[in-house]
Write a structure and sequence with these properties.
This protein has 176 residues and is α/β, with parallel strands linked by helices. The chain is built from six helices and six strands; from the N terminus they run βαββαβααβαβα. The N and C termini lie close together (5 Å). The chain binds guanosine-5'-diphosphate and magnesium ion (MG). Residues 9, 11-17, 29, 31, 120-121, 123-124, 150-152 line the site of guanosine-5'-diphosphate.
Length: 176
């Protein structure tokens, strides 16, 4: 199975940290600002899975009208929308992104690819401004899935996000 995942969210929420953590198991701390599609393969339930993960440096929220955004929605088999639990504005941006994705023609035609909302930087709980409940509620109201993770301190939590997505894409029979 091969699947395309687009990672979106405002600046500095940890989009690259999450992606690199999945790929290398490491948290490096500093990430360049390059538009890249990474490929990552692993075996799950005896089958090889290849994920193509599109990570970009833009603050997507302001780009939802652009053709690049439309292109990503067309390309995606699923979406990872990231915010930081210490950054209220980034959480608000996720709501807008969900609306923007769901209102594109490509999203509807593609059989509604799964969307996962990820609250990152869980290790910074002393600086938390977005409650877990708020993330969970947003997911419930928008028919998305929700995780809180720490790219910095918890590799397993990052793995759960991407492996969970693979299960959902299988369920949705989007890919074979
Ligand atoms: P992006 O702009 O969304 O790609 O964000 P980056 O992945 O470049 O991360 C932005 C900053 O947040 C960097 O300094 C990272 O080291 C830091 N960061 C990312 N994830 C975490 C996390 O889970 N916990 C903490 N404490 N810092 C993080
Ligand atoms: Mg980045």
């Amino acid at each position: 199975m091969e699947a395309n995942i687009v990672v979106l969210g405002t600046e500095s929420v940890g989009k690259s940290a999450l992606t690199v953590r999945l790929l290398t198991r490491r948290f490096i701390g500093e990430y360049g600002d390059i538009e890249s599609i990474y490929s990552h393969s692993f075996i799950a339930d005896g089958r090889e899975i290849t994920l193509n993960i599109w990570d970009s440096p833009y603050s997507e929220d302001s780009c939802v009208e652009t053709s690049l955004f439309q292109k990503k929605v067309r390309w995606a088999d699923s979406f990872v929308l990231v915010y930081s639990i210490c950054d209220r504005a980034s959480f608000n941006s996720v709501s807008r992104l969900i609306q923007a994705i769901k209102s594109t023609k490509d999203y509807l035609e593609a059989d509604k690819p799964p969307i996962v909302i990820v609250g990152n930087k869980r290790d910074l709980h002393h600086r938390r401004t977005v409650l877990s409940e708020e993330g969970r509620l947003l997911a419930l109201n928008t028919d998305c899935h929700f995780y809180e993770v720490s790219a910095a301190e918890n590799y397993h939590s990052v793995l759960m996000v991407f492996h969970g997505l693979v299960d959902r894409m299988k369920d949705a029979k989007l890919t074979t």
